[in-house]
Structures are given as structure tokens and as C-alpha cells.
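Notes from the 1:1 (GR / supervisor)

We went over the backlog. Supervisor wanted to see one worked example end to end before approving the batch request, so GR pasted a single chain during the call. The sequence is below; no edits were made to it. Supervisor asked that the structure be written out right there so they could see what the output format looks like.
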Amino acid sequence: MAEATRTSARSRKRAPYANGERKRAELVDAAFRAFAEKGYQSLSIRQLAELIGTSHTLLLHHFGSKDALLEAVLVRREELEGPWRQGLIDDRGLLAAVPEVMRHNAEIRGVIQLDVTLRAEADRPDHPARAFIRRRDADFVRSIRSELERELGAGRLKPGLDLGVLARQIVSLIEGIQVAWLYDDSIDMAAHLEAFMALIRNPR
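Structure output shown during the call:
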């Protein structure tokens, strides 16, 4: 009987925590959509709360500040997208996977809008996402270079290319074509990346 009472007490303690985490996740997803549509700099914490249908006191309770909420949004995006991308690259190799990633990106316009908006805003030294974006960009270039080395080792990449330069070119092409696509969604992002990959693929 005593054990059942203790178990019931633990369950009651876990329930508010689980509810709080669920609510926090809902707020992160809603903030993601708001930032993607309106940007970060233009929204006060009160305006953001109104957009997502909650109170600014609740947002502050869960996150402490608008900056902390933005960080939670950026982390959440990578949690959702990162494992899928890496699994695809591991399975198919970088040259085949990148166009497929671009097809996927064409289905998540809000994600691309958020990324492009934050990139444009974060050129300001005081922007809270500036360090995150710079770190993420450096990690992105390094990961692309590492995957290019794997492609070279597998014989799928033309020999003699400067992998550091090539990694930066691929990252820049991805980022640039996404901006162009936001202005004109008739652009086939995957086709552009496939054409570039054909230029660097080993024709053997």
C-alpha cells in the first residue's frame, strides 16, 4: 500500500513536468512560424505572444527572454532536420543526397523563410543569433568538406578539386538558390544542385 502511494505521488509530480514540456514544445513550434513570417527584430515579446495566441508572461515563464526563445527555435529546427539529412547522406553519398535535400526544403517554406530572414538580420553584431549562425555556417562547410572527402575516396568525385573551395561553393549555392526560390517558387532548386553535382562528379 505504501509503495502504491509513493508511485502515485511520483506520477503526480511527473504529470505537471510533462505538461510543461509539452507546452514549451508547442510554444517553440508556434514561435518558429511567427519568426519565419515576421522576422525576429520586428517583434517584441508582447507582439510575439499575441501572434501565437498566448501571453507574454507565459513566454517569459518558459524561456526567460525572446533571445532564449529564438535559441530554442533554432535548436529545435536542427533536432528535426539534422538526423534525416545525415541519414540520407550516409545512405546515398553527398552528391546524390544534396538534390534530395533541396526537394525536401521546397516543402518546408517556413523553415527556409526563417533561415533567410535570420541570416539577413544577423549581420548586425548585436543580433542574438549571430554567433549561432556563424558557428552553424562553419560547421556546415566543415561537414560538406568531410563528405566530399568520403565521395573522393569512393571514386564518385572528380580528382584534383580543391575540397575547401568546393565545400564553400556548395554551401553558397544552397543558400543562394533558396533565396531566389523564395522570390520565385517556380525555380527547381533540386535541378540546379543536380546540375552542379554533375559538373564535379567523376564521369568514370
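Supervisor's comment: The chain is about 80% helix and 0% strand.
Batch request approved.
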